[in-house]
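Materials and Methods. Structural model of Succinylglutamate desuccinylase/aspartoacylase family protein. The 326-residue sequence of Succinylglutamate desuccinylase/aspartoacylase family protein from Variovorax robiniae was retrieved and submitted for structure prediction as follows.
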Amino acid sequence: MPEPTPEPTPESDVLRIHAFAALEPGPRLMVMGGVHGDETCGTVGMERLRSELDEGSVKLLRGTLTMVPVANPLARRLLRREGERNLNRLFQPTPEGEEPADYEARLTDVLCPLLDQHDVLLDLHSFQSAGDAFAMIGPRNNDGTLEPFARAEEEGRLALQLGTTRVVEGWLDIYAAGLQQRNPGEPLDEAALAYGWGTNEYMRSRGGYGVTLECGQHEDPAAPEVAYQAIHAALRLLGMVSEPAPVREPPVLLRLVSVTDRLDDEDQFAREWATFDPVAAGEVIGMRADGAVLKADRDGFIVFPNPEALAGTEWFYFAVTSDRKL
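The predicted structure was written out as tokens:
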């Protein structure tokens, strides 16, 4: 009898990378999915488009399209968010002369040089709580020290085309504020701040731009379609395919303004929240284990409520309507 096929291990994992290059030069778009192993919609959307490109029903007119359907094979094999850690944090190559610290560092050592070859990133995700799909963008143009950026208009145009009813800004600002909140009075820890870097932060640091698309709840049967349509939308916007663009209502733009950590496993939400549930000033959001009541300090929206958050990690974000114009 033949020997049974051994179970795959982290050492045997391989990143599948699908690349399509038109003969006419043009934009270089990279699409990623499966950065978190339990987020499968991007993988399904990419495989569908890959079949269309292979069979010729979709033709790439110019530029280069690279798709990574499963960016974290270990997390996907385990069907959980992380392999050894969150791949969408500390998304940077290992410093020269050092050994990769973990499995995800080995992945970034492959993925970062690949991103360096591209201009635009579309990173496809989903989320745990109920809620509608939305896009996340980076900062406005600035020359500050946290996240200097000069391509906000292009990034905003991409977000507008992805078909969501909402676009959210403000991730790295709020991540940095969360660090200060956990360590009041201390200088901002640069190593901890670097941990807040994800795929798009890396892409912007290399002169490109990127949008994260949260395609809906993990198990939402519509999420793969959202991912698939978004890839087509990006290709259309960049002039890489010839397709009619649907007429869309402009999305509502929100800005993250705070993050609240779960301090104890007994901290509980006041009710089952969904992403983008509206909250009125003074409304009770949750209760701490010691009986303290958390109330909204203004009108706004709950984002990424996680009733399963571990103590010491992000419990929920809070957003308000933004005055930014895309």
